[in-house]
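quick q for whoever's on today - can somebody do inverse folding on this one?? i tried earlier but teh output was garbage lol. tokens:
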């Protein structure tokens, strides 16, 4: 089912709570706004937040002749979404599964979803290097058009955990596109000044040490936070924000990677 996908982008982090789902959804929305056809796969089985962020919680998936049909955000079907959240009766339902059942579900997501032709498939992953990651890597490691974006926050405790994720990618043969630093200071919605409420420079420093490309800093922006649950793209609603600039620059890098066939 992935042979018609030009590029697979894994959004990874060794740390929970760094905002991978926000980065994944806004990246997918930015790609859509730039004219690409996009799929967004949420494999965070125990914490599927993508349906909520995109305001798709009441939608259902169904089985078609060629496999599961994703939920589409728009009538033009330029952004398709798949998540276990669509299979739960309520957002309060807990997924209490052992490893083998999780593995089987992720394999189904990767093999049985009828995405049609896609420019990009963005995969939002849970934190760490657990069963879910191993299953994803085993199914994607033979796909040359697969690469990872590593998400961190500036603090040292996050950097140390994310460093393990970089090691994991290198051991499993997944190419790393670069590192993005999320929650990089608080951006005042009134004066636009950014204050480093944690620390600063952690993501850039990690990129330099790991010899990886640094993809930019995303601040904590209350205006972007309000877009969660509405399925709206920051680049469209807040075109002059720092978040939109970083996302547009990232999409330019991804577009170039498709053109260069890497």
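ok took a stab at it. sequence:
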């Amino acid at each position: 089912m992935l042979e018609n996908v030009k590029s697979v982008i894994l959004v990874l982090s060794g740390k929970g709570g760094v905002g991978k789902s926000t980065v994944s959804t806004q990246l997918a929305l930015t790609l859509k706004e730039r004219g690409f056809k996009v799929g967004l796969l949420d494999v965070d089985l125990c914490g599927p937040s993508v349906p909520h962020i995109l305001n798709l919680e009441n939608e259902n998936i169904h089985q078609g002749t060629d496999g599961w049909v994703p939920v589409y955000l728009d009538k033009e079907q330029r952004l398709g979404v798949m998540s276990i959240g669509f299979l739960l009766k309520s957002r309060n339902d807990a997924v209490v599964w052992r490893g083998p059942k999780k593995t089987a579900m992720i394999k189904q997501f990767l093999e049985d979803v009828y995405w049609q032709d896609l420019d990009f498939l963005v995969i939002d992953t849970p934190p760490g290097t657990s069963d879910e990651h191993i299953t994803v890597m085993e199914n994607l490691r033979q796909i040359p058009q697969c690469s990872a974006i590593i998400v961190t926050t500036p603090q040292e405790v996050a950097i140390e955990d994310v460093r393990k994720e970089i090691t994991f990618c290198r051991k499993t043969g997944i190419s790393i596109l670069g590192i993005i630093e999320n929650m990089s200071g608080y951006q005042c919605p009134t004066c636009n000044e950014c204050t480093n409420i944690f620390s600063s420079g952690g993501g850039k420093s990690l990129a330099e040490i790991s010899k990886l490309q640094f993809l930019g800093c995303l601040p904590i922006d209350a205006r972007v936070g309000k877009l969660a649950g509405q399925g709206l793209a920051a680049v469209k609603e807040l075109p002059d924000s720092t978040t939109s600039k970083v996302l547009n620059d990232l999409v330019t890098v991804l577009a170039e990677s498709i053109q260069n066939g890497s």
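fwiw The chain has one domain: 5-261. also The CA atoms of residues 196 and 252 lie 27 Å apart. so keep that in mind when u check it
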